[in-house]
Amino acid sequence: MPITEILEKNARVYPNDVALVEINPQLPESKRMTWKEYSLIETSKVDKFRDEITWKEFNKRANRFANMLYAHGIKKGDKVAILLMNCLEWLPIYFGILKTGALAVPLNFRYAADEIKYCLELADVDALVFGPEFIGRVEEIIDSVPKVKSCYYVGEDCPTFAESYNKLLEFYSSTSPAQDLTDDDYAAIYFSSGTTGFPKAIIHKHRSLSHSCQVEQKHHGQTKDDVFLCIPPLYHTGAKMHWFGSFLVGGKTVLLRGVKPEWVIKTVSEEKCSIVWLLVPWAQDILDAIDRGDIKLDEYKLDQWRLMHIGAQPVPPSLIRHWKEIFPEHQYDTNYGLSESIGPGCVHLGVENIHKVGAIGIAGYGWEVKIVDENKNDIPQGTVGELAVKGPGVMECYYKDEKATNETLSADGWLYTGDMAEMDSDGFIWLVDRKKDVIITGGENLYPVQIENFIRQNFKVKDVAVIGLPDPRLGEIAAAIVEVKEGETLTEAELEAFYLALPRYKRPKKTIFAPVPRNATGKIEKPKLREIYCGESLVAMQNELV
To answer: Do 345 and 335 meet the contact criterion of CB atoms below 8 Å apart?
Structure first.
């Protein structure tokens, strides 16, 4: 069924139950107020520390926006882009777009102006919804994208080149628009992470989105009583598709605008959150804050917190072992997926398989998996090859990129992920690395994730990335970029002694102490690191050869 029907059901069955809560701890104390306090003030310009909407209000807002889009010429098959920070308006806007039969096109809030322009043009966007953080970037490029017929601004003090979403919305009906939708209708265009250049546009149908709701709920057993804490950006498939499990059962979700460890723990306590999805850096920051004594767990109400799960990147086993030492009662799951497979869940560890921590797991609900060689042939267990997945959540195609589609998607529906993995004798899949990140040194294949997981076992290491640097004799050498924990000191000699536990060929030949950059979804930005350090190594290598 179209995913919009789930929202209609929730509004009908749970009209007065809270659907979404937004918490913005970044507001200064002098500007904070509760929703009750805010409701007693006449002005709409006062910033809110906490706000919430019910399922009935959620659906009404989505309907009003859908009817507004209709009135402004948006029709089935058109594309409407969303460029917003996480906020209460984000999801009603998303569903309002879907209710018209148009395609929602979420944009990464980190995009520079030229990247926004590129995505608007690639996806043939007809209208853009944006927030105050993006006025400058949008103003810079909007006149050069003539296909974008309308710009809607979400916020106060609307710029002259846009129309005010806030003011327009109240003039339109809150009744659901009469648009027939089916599972086979296109629903959304998501963009690949873009860590290797400009992103690709990924098309999904309603069938993909609806299936992802079922996958998440089957994996994590959400009930109406669960409260989901959502921290990652909603433009990314990971955040939204994990929310889909709560959405399916009409559960409450809290949108936290901030990632500081004390904010996370305080929100879990005060909002009675029972499910939290984290990225690796945030989980590590929470553990570090607890270890330092900055967070004292006995000051918070955390008994209801039952599940912590992580996705979007390889998860160091040492992190989870430490987490379970501090939170022994927590269920834990690792979730693997791509935007091309409608986000997380095509492979998952499963809460019952904590003994396999380190693996990404087994095929998710409704999914098939296999590992293949360079000719797409199945390979034996214990052999490294490319992971392929197949299921109802696979994308339709890369929009306007037939060549890339044919390289990634087979005629019989297998999606080749570009991730190198191996399957153990129990059928569990272990992620080895991205195909493009494999380091070939002296004829040996090195998989950076394996080396990174080893280095993270050093308690002084906060984060690490391993990349290949050019070498005149070996072709490439492994270099470790190491970020040290706050308050700790670590020397190159200490790390070299630590590396001795690795096989000789896996030991990093160079250690660089520096911050490890990650994108908004927690993935290490290795292209950025290669740009910085490979250039330096090439110059050094050329000097040696002169």
So the answer is: yes
For the domain covering 4-258, report its CATH number: 3.40.50.12780
d(CA 77, CA 328): 49
Residue type, 492: E
- pTM here is 0.82
Between the two ends of the chain, the Cα-to-Cα distance in Å is: 67
**Which residues does 358 contact at the CB level (< 8 Å), separation at least 6?**
315, 317, 320, 430, 453
The two domains 306-434 and 438-545 share their CATH topology (first three levels equal):
no
Backbone dihedral region of 340: left (phi > 0), alpha (psi from -120 to 50 degrees) or beta? Answer: alpha
Q: Going by DSSP bridges, is the β-strand pair 103-106/79-83 parallel, antiparallel, or unpaired?
A: parallel
Per CATH, the number for 438-545 is 3.30.300.30
Tens digit of pLDDT for each residue in 414-444?
999 988 899 999 999 998 767 777 787 866 7
- Domain assignments of the chain as residue spans, ordered by start: 4-258, 306-434, 438-545
| DSSP, residue by residue, 241-253 | HHHHHHHHHT-EE
In what order do the strands lie in the sheet containing 510-513? 461-471, 475-484, 510-513
Instruction: Quote the tokens at residue 370.
Output: 């296999």
Return d(Cα 544, Cα 390) in angstroms, integer: 49
Closest by alpha carbon to 18, among 267, 246, 300? 246
Q: Cβ(248)–Cβ(217) under 8 Å?
A: yes
Burial 499-527 (b: 16+ CB within 10 A, else e): beeeeeebbbeebbeeebbbbbbbbbebb
| pLDDT tens for each residue of 127-140 | 999 999 999 999 99
At 407, which helix (H) or strand (E)?
A: helix 402-408
Residues 57-97 pLDDT 10s: 999 999 999 999 999 999 999 999 999 999 999 999 999 99
Can you list the alpha helix ranges (DSSP code H) found in 55-203?
Answer: 55-71, 90-99, 113-122, 135-141, 165-169
Distance in angstroms (rounded) separating the CA atoms of residues 544 and 17 = 69
CATH architecture of 306-434: Roll (2.30)
